[in-house]
């Protein structure tokens, strides 16, 4: 992230959605991060999260990672790696995005959750036999998986142009 991080009073904006991709691709669906902030009552805010970058901005479609300096990753043929990350000045994105919006610079309260699951104690519906064991290359315990997450609670969730 190009800022010092997100702060208090976080809002989440879920913009667009899968309906813009299926059953028909709606390439014309464009959104503006500044307008999204205004809709969420955050006039001057730090925004970060994943979305889609329109062809009208980059010349090709790409994946958008919005933060103070928006960055776009797109696939390229003549590059040292199969993708290239570019910074853009445009606040535009399309199809969908999940954005966290925060105005206050003070640190947010963050919670930690760790879950350890033993595959032998979980119902078959939730843990298909052998589905996750040894899924990760450094996993040496065949039937145990540990998940860890860090969470900052949002005060509000906005669903904008839900499809």
Automatic annotation (TrEMBL):
Keywords: Hydrolase, Metal-binding, Nucleus, Zinc. The keyword Magnesium does not apply. SMART domains: DUF1907 (SM01168). Signal peptide: none annotated. One of its GO terms (molecular function) is zinc ion binding. Residues 1-160 form the DUF1907 domain. The keyword Membrane does not apply. It comes from the Eukaryota. It is found in: Nucleus. One of its GO terms (cellular component) is nucleus. Monomer. This is DUF1907 domain-containing protein. The lineage of its organism: Eukaryota, Metazoa, Ecdysozoa, Nematoda, Chromadorea.
């Amino acid at each position: 992230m190009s800022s010092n991080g997100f702060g208090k009073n976080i809002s989440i904006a879920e913009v667009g959605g899968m309906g813009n991709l299926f059953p028909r691709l709606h390439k014309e669906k464009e959104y503006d991060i500044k307008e999204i902030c205004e809709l969420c009552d955050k006039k001057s805010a730090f925004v970060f999260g994943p979305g889609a970058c329109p062809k009208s901005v980059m010349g090709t479609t790409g994946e958008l990672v919005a933060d103070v300096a928006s960055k776009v990753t797109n696939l390229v043929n003549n590059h040292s790696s199969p993708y290239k990350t570019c910074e853009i000045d445009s606040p535009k994105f399309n199809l969908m995005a999940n954005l966290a919006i925060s105005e206050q610079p003070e640190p947010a309260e963050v919670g930690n959750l760790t879950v350890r699951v033993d595959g032998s104690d979980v119902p078959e519906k939730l843990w298909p036999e052998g589905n996750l064991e040894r899924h990760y290359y450094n996993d040496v315990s065949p039937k145990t998986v540990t998940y860890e997450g860090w969470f900052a609670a949002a005060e509000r969730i906005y669903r904008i142009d839900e499809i």
